[in-house]
Design goal:
By secondary structure, the chain is of the alpha/beta class. It has 14 helices and 14 strands.
Length: 500
Amino acid sequence: MRPNPIPTLTHWGLPPLLGAISVFGFAPFGLFPLPILALAALHVLLRDDSPARAGVRGGLFGLGGFLAGVSWVYVSLHEFGQMPAALAVFATLAFCAYLALFPALALALTRLPNLTASVRGLVWAPALWASLEWLRGTLFTGFPWQSIGYSQVPDSPLAGYAPILGVYGVSWLAALSAAMLALLFMPGRTRLGRSGLIGALLAIWVAGAALQNVGWIRPTGAPVSVTLLQGNVAQELKFEPDHLIATLDDYQRMILDSRARLIVTPETALPLFLEHIPPDYLDILARHGRANGGDVLVGLPIREPDGRYYNSMLSLGSGPVQTYAKVHLVPFGEFVPWGFGWIVDYLKIPLSDFSAGAPDQAPMAVAGQQVALNICYEDVFGEELIHALPEATLMVNVSNDAWFGQSAAPWQHLQISQMRALETGRWWLRANNTGITAILDEKGRVRDLLPPFVQASLHGEAQGMAGLTPYARWGNAAILTLLALSLVLALGARRRVSTV
């Protein structure tokens, strides 16, 4: 008799399917309950697994999720980095497999023996999940993309915890919610009972909704008029010599058409070193900024006399000339990690050897505001940005998401910025080459945006803010302390059980 294939499909096919389903909780879909429900279903599926089996199936869950959510890495490598297709496929699979190791480890350790159901579900498993997300966002310069906490902004009640505990705190509460739901479907596995679990779950979500109404910060001064430029320069044309004049002309025209006090171009909008840009071109921009009573922020690479060069922003206008140099660089895109020099032979990425700017650079004094800048990938690392607070009244992110083509990545990037707005309690201005260019308020709400892949200017107003959210005061220290205490408490309970 042939074996029934259904159990095999359930055991090994369902975890990656659940992982793929969880991606619909992130932008652009925004069905925020799905990642929690998918993780809850995985806990039920793995309830009787050994640690090794749970680890493998947890890894399959992660692999399904990352292949569905971040496989746009292939677009960057092959279509724009010109890596051979077969090698780009391998590199994308290897990258997603590496990311899947973190949920694999979390789920394997979740099945540690001698843990009661209550301790495992309510203390151990959620703390493990959030801790491994933090580790993924830190190790080897970090890749926190698609942390479950990002799926909960801005519509989920759990977003109310972001100004207190940051994205990893929201991830912890999402994982806790998933564990509680799983326990509801595993009768007899907890002493709390169904009513206790439901009551605790409702309390977490109701409290999160109430926290969204707390005013952690306050407005300061009058709103400032802003224009965010979206040049929509195709990545394959961006550094082509024949297209440079058209790029310079387009951005000059868009800047001169604006009457806003603060005008912002995207990352490397001018794809020439500063010394190669005609001085009269920059003078025209500076005079226009002064005529508007404000400043123009221009993205371009700046090279030092010693040959080092930086991914930078330059201010021109009423204030003194100021610069910002990107600090957290993208591996392989902006610098080559030690030991991977051979990969340069397979990638054709211009300006791929940037130097990192000094950490803790002060905000720019422009357009009557204190503006803290970050460039592209830097806004994925929330704790690295809070050094600019409380001095900064506005936050500006400039990006070039053309590298990701027509994938979900630009929308995911916008969602990440929404989390940063909640954490910092500041309006965020996003100027992106091909989109998504947007104005976000301090609650992470999108006030206005431009559709992707159009050349346009986004005109609006932004309100400067003062004060500090709890997260801006202590960064990740609070949630990491909470996670450490939870893990120690669970291990202590395990030792007590094992000696009974």
